[in-house]
Design brief:
Blueprint lengths: L1 H17 L30 E5 L6 H16 L3 E5 L6 H14 L3 E4 L8 H9 L3 E5 L10 E4 L3 H15 L4 E7 L5 H14 L7 E8 L4 H14 L3 E6 L2 H13 L7 E4 L3 H10 L4 E4 L2 H17 L9 E3 L5 E7 L2 E5 L4 E4 L3 H4 L4
Parallel strand pairs: 1-2, 1-3, 3-4, 4-5, 5-13, 6-7, 6-8, 8-9
Antiparallel strand pairs: 10-14, 11-12, 12-13
Helix pairs in contact: 2-10, 3-4, 5-6, 7-8
C-alpha cells in the first residue's frame, strides 16, 4: 500500500516537475526583478512573491526541491523566486535574506545552513511582515513560523542504523559521512543514530567517526578516502546526504571495495542506481524532494493568506498531497511529509527514471 501510495504521489509530482523550468542558482527566477516598491510584496498583476533559499548550488536534491516549490506557488497563481548560494554557508544565506527583505517579498522558505546564525536576519524579515518557514534543514523555532520536515527524524536515524547493521551482519566498525557540521537535519538524524546504537543488540557495532563533506562532491570524496585510510577495518558507511552517498559510492566502486565496505544513507535514485545494482549500496532511503518543496510552497501560501499561523493542530490542504496537519516540534512546530522510502535492487530500475 505504501508503495502504491508513494507511486501515485510521485507520479503527480513528476508531471508537475516536468512542467516547470528550474533556474536554481545564485541568481533569481520566476520574475524576481518585478517591481520591488509594492508595499505588500505583490507585483502590478497582483501576484505575491514567494522566495525559497536552498543550501547551495550544484545539488540535484536541492534543484528538485525548488522545482516542487515553484510548481506549488505557480498553481496558486503567484511568483516564485529560487535562490541558492555558491557555497553552503550561513553568511551567504544571510546576504540573500537581506536582499529579499529589500525586495519586500511576502514569504521566505529556507533550508538553513546553520540553525542559529540565521536568526537575526530571519527575525528582521518577520518584523518586516514576511512569513518565514524552513524546510529540509530547520532554523531555530524563534526564526520561523513553522518547519516542513521530510520525515520523522527519529525514524530516519534509527532506520539507517538498522540498515547498516543488517548489511554488516551486526558486527564491525561504521562511519557517518554527513554534510556540514552545522546542518540541523543531519545533526538531528545523527543524534537518533547514536541513540539507536545504545541498544544492546548493537554491542558489536562501533561508530568510529563522523566526517563532514560539506555537501560538496570533491570534499565528500576526500573524506571518504580518509575514512578508508584511517580505519582499514571499516565495514560500513552511512551517508545521510545525497551528495555524500553518491561520492562514497564512486570511491568504493573505484577501489573495488564492494564486498568489504557496505554503503547506505539518503540518496537520489537516478544517481545511486548503478551502485545499488552493483551491490556497493545494497539499499538506501529517501523521500521525493519535489514533494518536500511542493509541501513547503503550500505551507508558505497558507501562512501568507492567513489560513494558518504555524500553530499546533492547524490543518491545510497542500495541493495534490492532500490535507496536512501542523504538529509540535520542540519549542516550535513542523509539518511532516511522510516516512522514508527504501530503494533496493528490486525497485531501483523503476525509480531511477523518476528522479
Amino acid at each position: 500500500m505504501m508503495t502504491l501510495g508513494l507511486t501515485a504521489v510521485m507520479a503527480v509530482s513528476l508531471l508537475a516537475g516536468c512542467g516547470s523550468n528550474n533556474n536554481a542558482g545564485s541568481g533569481e527566477s520566476g520574475g524576481a526583478n518585478a517591481a520591488a516598491d509594492a508595499s505588500n510584496g505583490a507585483d502590478a498583476g497582483g501576484k505575491k512573491k514567494f522566495a525559497i533559499i536552498f543550501k547551495n548550488t550544484g545539488n540535484p536534491y536541492g534543484e528538485k526541491m525548488m522545482e516542487g516549490f515553484k510548481k506549488a506557488i505557480e498553481e496558486k497563481g503567484d511568483e516564485a523566486i529560487l535562490k541558492a548560494p555558491d557555497q553552503p554557508t550561513a553568511e551567504a544565506q544571510i546576504q540573500m535574506i537581506e536582499e529579499l527583505i529589500s525586495q519586500k517579498v511576502d514569504s521566505i522558505s529556507i533550508a538553513g545552513n546553520d540553525p542559529d546564525a540565521l536568526q537575526p536576519a530571519l527575525t528582521k524579515a518577520m518584523k518586516a511582515g514576511i512569513k518565514v518557514s524552513s524546510l529540509d534543514s530547520a532554523v531555530n523555532a524563534q526564526s520561523r513560523n513553522t518547519h516542513v520536515n521530510q520525515a520523522d527524524p527519529e525514524r530516519i536515524g534509527r532506520t539507517l542504523i538498522q540498515g547498516v547493521s543488517e548489511m554488516i551482519g551486526g558486527e564491525g566498525e561504521i562511519a557517518i559521512l554527513s554534510a556540514t557540521s552545522q546542518a540541523t537535519n543531519q545533526n538531528t538524524w545523527i543524534e537518533w543514530m547514536k541513540k539507536e546504537l545504545e541498544d544492546p543488540k548493537y554491542a558489536n557495532v562501533k561508530l568510529v567517526k563522523v566526517a563532514y563533506g560539506d555537501d560538496l562532491r570533491d570534499k565528500s570524496v576526500s573524506e571518504t578516502e580518509a575514512l578508508l585510510k584511517s580505519y582499514p577495518n571499516l565495514k560500513g558507511i552511512i551517508a545521510p546526504t545525497t551528495v555524500g552517498i553518491a561520492a562514497a559510492g564512486k570511491v568504493l566502486t573505484d577501489k573495488g571495495l564492494k564486498d568489504k565496505v557496505k554503503l547506505t544513507g539518503l540518496g537520489l535514485p537516478s544517481e545511486m542506481a548503478e551502485y545499488i545494482e552493483s551491490g556497493v549500496c545494497p539499499w538506501m532511503y529517501l523521500w521525493n524532494p519535489i514533494d518536500v518543496g511542493y509541501l513547503a510552497g503550500f505551507a508558505a501560501e497558507g501562512l501568507v493568506a492567513g489560513e494558518i499561523t504555524g500553530a499546533t493542530g492547524e490543518k491545510f490542504t497542500a495541493g495534490s498531497l492532500g490535507e496536512k496537519e501542523i504538529v509540535a516540534d520542540g519549542d516550535g512546530t513542523q509539518i511532516m511529509l511522510g516516512d522514508p522510502f527504501k530503494f533496493d535492487a528490486g525497485n531501483i530500475a523503476e525509480w531511477k527514471e523518476v528522479y
